[in-house]
Design the sequence.
């Protein structure tokens, strides 16, 4: 058995173990009752928000790639993004779909440019989520205990310093400096142009708004109405756990964070568990259109007549 297979099995085992543990300590029976009585209209709203998030993310990727010299149609970008999300949700690691997206879209621009477009697009999404978290702390940071608030502020501070670190790394000698200069230049072209920055900001804010709304809709579906301050301060923390490559699709980590943080908003741990499970299920359903991209396209037959 290969090392990669062992890692994937370990990630699946971690996800299962976390879910079983949470089921026992966060009143899984109550969470199941909340899921059984979930409002389908709110779940449908969450599904629509997640679909909109995928389309906006695909358009952001298309814009980023275009600024780096890689052209693609909007339809192809959306189809590729759906497929990448499907793979990310189905396989451990959460980045295999993005790697495939870069490989398939490389075209004549090459894999380096295609890979830069994918990485920059993903970083733009995470930056928007961190910006929402910063706004949430300004509005509702009091609901976080000091033991949690300080680490969160440290993470935000480090994230804010990363662009400066990249800028400074351009002066390094050798291959590292060349790589930093190349990536910094790609980021500037893809994000900071006069006609590009407003569009990037709009698309990134739209994607994060859809993500937060989808989670809030799942909370409402399972009986919890989160206030705006909690949506901005707590939900980004919950969603950020999904980027940790410890489980499949963030399962287990996301539920643990929701169960731990929901009591800060006056809800129960079981409500957090139910909300996160509902969100995970809606996310899985929302990426199913990615299967269409796997459907073989019949090739036109050549006309045998002279």
Sequence:
């Amino acid at each position: 058995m290969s090392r990669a297979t062992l890692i994937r099995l370990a990630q699946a085992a971690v996800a299962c173990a976390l879910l079983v543990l949470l089921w026992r300590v966060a009143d899984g029976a109550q969470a199941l009752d909340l899921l059984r009585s979930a409002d389908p209209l709110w779940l449908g709203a969450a599904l629509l928000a997640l679909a909109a998030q995928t389309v906006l993310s695909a358009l952001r990727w298309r814009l980023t790639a275009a600024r780096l010299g890689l052209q693609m149609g909007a339809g192809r970008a959306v189809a590729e993004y759906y497929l990448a999300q499907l793979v990310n949700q189905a396989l451990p690691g959460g980045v295999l779909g993005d790697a495939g997206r870069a490989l398939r879209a490389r075209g004549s621009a090459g894999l380096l440019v295609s890979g830069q477009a994918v990485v920059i697009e993903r970083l733009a999404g995470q930056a928007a989520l961190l910006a929402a978290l910063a706004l949430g702390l300004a509005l509702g940071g009091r609901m976080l205990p000091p033991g949690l608030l300080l680490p969160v502020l440290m993470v935000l501070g480090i994230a804010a310093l990363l662009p400066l670190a990249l800028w400074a790394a351009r002066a390094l000698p050798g291959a590292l400096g060349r790589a930093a200069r190349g990536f910094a230049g790609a980021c500037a072209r893809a994000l900071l142009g006069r006609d590009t920055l407003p569009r990037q900001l709009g698309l990134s804010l739209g994607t994060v708004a859809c993500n937060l709304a989808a989670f809030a809709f799942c909370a409402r579906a399972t009986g919890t109405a989160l206030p705006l301050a909690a949506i901005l301060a707590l939900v980004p923390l919950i969603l950020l756990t999904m980027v940790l490559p410890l489980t499949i699709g963030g399962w287990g980590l996301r539920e643990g964070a929701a169960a731990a943080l929901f009591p800060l908003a006056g809800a129960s741990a079981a409500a957090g568990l139910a909300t996160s499970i509902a969100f995970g299920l809606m996310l899985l359903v929302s990426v199913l259109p990615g299967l269409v991209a796997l459907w073989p396209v019949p090739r036109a037959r050549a006309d045998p007549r002279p």
Observations:
- Confidence is low (pLDDT under 50) at residues 297-306.
- The two ends are 55 Å apart (CA to CA).
- The chain is about 75% helix and 0% strand.
